[in-house]
């Protein structure tokens, strides 16, 4: 009994400590400005807790992509639409754009207002009655997406949108005896077991084998290989249900396919009764200079996946939208594919406001114009360092800069980070840095990035 009592008191004391700890954190979350002690506390807690409770690998990664002690840079607040500030007050122009989540900028006032307004009367839905914003958002997506895309299912991420797309294609095509899929080398579609089966990178896939069966990968942009794989598959009784493609490969390093690739893939789809799934999770919502990248190719997919920027950089939301012919498979039992938080009122409010901003502020046009300027300026600087810069490519504000090797890519991202510019130079594909700023980026900010790049490159040759 005695030892039990001691344990109880120990537990109580531990609980008191925990409550104090949460108070301390809730207190600094609520603060407008941090003092020196707050800053020290936050940095120490972040680094130590990443090491002990999240994954120490992240600290090693941060060390590899930054100079000196900067790995411990802890982000804290947004600064206008296109920049953010770390705990120590250093400002960064965000040319990573959360890999494409910040199309309408950081904390866009219209999106922020919609979410705050919604929060005033309801946060989440009952899960049983009809919730209005989900229905209204679905109508808006029908209006802005190409072709006959009409019915939407909402989840919380791009991965869930891809899972939904795979399941829709299966339920529709299974009865015709088709249940195989074609994806592409360099593709990224997510990391859940289903979506990972479509993703291509060996390092992400191999440890989790066997994945969902029936996925084949062909080289992206190679229409001959696509045709031959479809034919060969059907000859051996492994008929293709759907082909899943990114209109531009993002994670793969901003890879643009030949101009007529999508149209030709669509022809193959029509010939063999195959569904075309366009994964616009990164290319959608104005990023490439049109609302959806497939519009550049004049191709109407049967299923489209959206996420990332759909929530306006404020709420997570993903959507899979399909034609009535395909989606009607879910009509008899709407509970056949569900998720608790998907399509919740806060996320839908954010997405509706995002669509408003994209249309009213003509964001796709802005991406087109600013992208042209930015790409031409990056090329101008790249041309000065032809020995190390291989290519600048892109569409709208989805831009890739390819270097001669990984080492140079690393050094460039490090140098830019040092100068307060965040780009996507990743551990896996460091040869190409991705530049995906908010579509709201100002010309002066593009100029600052170009100037910094010039300085960084001049130090490398
Ligand atoms: C990011 C991405 C995904 C996965 O989205 P998550 O929200 O990270 O699950 C899927 N497809 C593409 C093309 C992406 O860029």
Description:
- With 461 residues, the chain is an alpha/beta fold.
- It folds into three domains: 1-31; 109-360, 3-Layer(aba) Sandwich (Aspartate Aminotransferase, domain 2); 363-458, Aspartate Aminotransferase, domain 1 (Alpha-Beta Complex).
- It contains 17 helices and 14 strands.
- The strands form three sheets. The chain has a seven-stranded mixed beta sheet, with helices on both faces.
- The radius of gyration is 24 Å and the shape is globular.
- The relative contact order is 0.14.
- The model has no long low-confidence stretch (mean pLDDT 95).
- Belongs to the class-III pyridoxal-phosphate-dependent aminotransferase family.
- Keywords: Aminotransferase, Pyridoxal phosphate, Transferase.
- This is Putrescine aminotransferase.
Task: Please render the helix and strand layout as text.
Layout: H1 2-29, H2 36-54, H3 57-65, E1 75-79, E2 83-86, E3 91-94, H4 97-100, H5 109-121, H6 132-144, E4 149-155, H7 158-173, E5 180-185, H8 193-198, H9 202-205, E6 215-219, H10 223-235, E7 240-245, H11 261-272, E8 275-279, H12 294-297, E9 303-306, E10 318-323, H13 324-327, H14 345-360, H15 363-384, E11 389-395, E12 398-403, H16 406-418, E13 421-422, E14 432-435, H17 443-458
Parallel strand pairs: 3-13, 5-6, 5-7, 7-8, 8-9
Antiparallel strand pairs: 1-2, 2-3, 4-10, 9-10, 11-12, 12-14
Helix pairs in contact: 5-14, 6-14, 10-11, 15-17, 16-17
Bound molecules: pyridoxal-5'-phosphate (PLP).
């Amino acid at each position: 009994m005695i030892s039990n009592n001691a344990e109880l008191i120990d537990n109580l004391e531990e609980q008191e400590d925990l409550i104090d700890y949460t108070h301390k954190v809730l207190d600094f979350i609520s603060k407008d400005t941090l003092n020196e002690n707050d800053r020290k506390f936050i940095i120490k807690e972040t680094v130590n807790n990443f090491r002990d409770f999240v994954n120490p690998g992240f600290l090693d990664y941060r060390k590899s992509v930054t100079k000196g002690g900067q790995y411990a840079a802890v982000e804290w607040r947004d600064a206008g639409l296109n920049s953010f500030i770390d705990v120590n007050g250093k400002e960064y122009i965000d040319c990573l754009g959360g890999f494409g989540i910040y199309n309408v900028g950081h904390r866009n006032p219209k999106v922020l207002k919609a979410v705050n307004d919604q929060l005033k009367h309801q946060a989440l839905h009952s899960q049983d009655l009809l919730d209005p914003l989900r229905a209204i958002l679905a109508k808006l997506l029908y209006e802005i997406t190409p072709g006959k895309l009409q019915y939407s299912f909402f989840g919380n991420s791009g991965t869930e949108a891809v899972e939904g797309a795979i399941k829709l294609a299966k339920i529709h095509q299974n009865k015709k005896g088709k249940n195989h899929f074609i994806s592409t080398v360099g593709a990224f579609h997510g990391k859940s077991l289903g979506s990972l089966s479509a993703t291509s990178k060996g390092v992400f896939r191999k440890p989790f084998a066997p994945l969902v069966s029936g996925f084949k990968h062909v080289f992206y942009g190679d229409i001959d290989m696509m045709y031959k794989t479809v034919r060969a598959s059907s000859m051996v009784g492994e008929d293709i249900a759907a082909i899943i493609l990114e209109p531009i490969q993002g994670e793969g390093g901003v890879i643009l396919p030949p101009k007529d690739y999508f149209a030709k893939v669509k022809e193959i789809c029509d010939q063999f009764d195959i569904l075309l799934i366009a994964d616009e999770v990164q290319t959608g919502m104005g990023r490439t200079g049109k609302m959806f990248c497939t519009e550049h190719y004049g191709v109407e997919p049967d299923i489209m996946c959206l996420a990332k920027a759909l929530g306006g950089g404020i709420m997570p939301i993903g959507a899979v939208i399909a034609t009535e012919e395909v989606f009607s498979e879910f009509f008899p039992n709407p509970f056949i594919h569900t998720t608790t938080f998907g399509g919740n009122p806060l996320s839908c409010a954010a997405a509706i406001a995002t669509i408003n901003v994209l249309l009213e502020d003509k964001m796709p046009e802005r991406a087109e114009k600013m992208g042209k300027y930015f790409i031409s300026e990056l090329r101008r600087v790249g041309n000065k360092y032809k020995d190390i810069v291989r290519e600048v490519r892109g569409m709208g504000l989805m831009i890739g800069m390819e270097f001669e090797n990984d080492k140079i890519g690393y050094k460039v991202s490090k140098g830019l980070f040092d100068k307060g510019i965040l780009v996507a130079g990743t551990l896996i594909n460091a040869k190409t840095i991705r530049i995906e700023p908010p579509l709201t980026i100002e010309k002066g900010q593009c100029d600052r990035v170009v100037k910094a790049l010039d300085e960084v490159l001049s130090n490398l040759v």
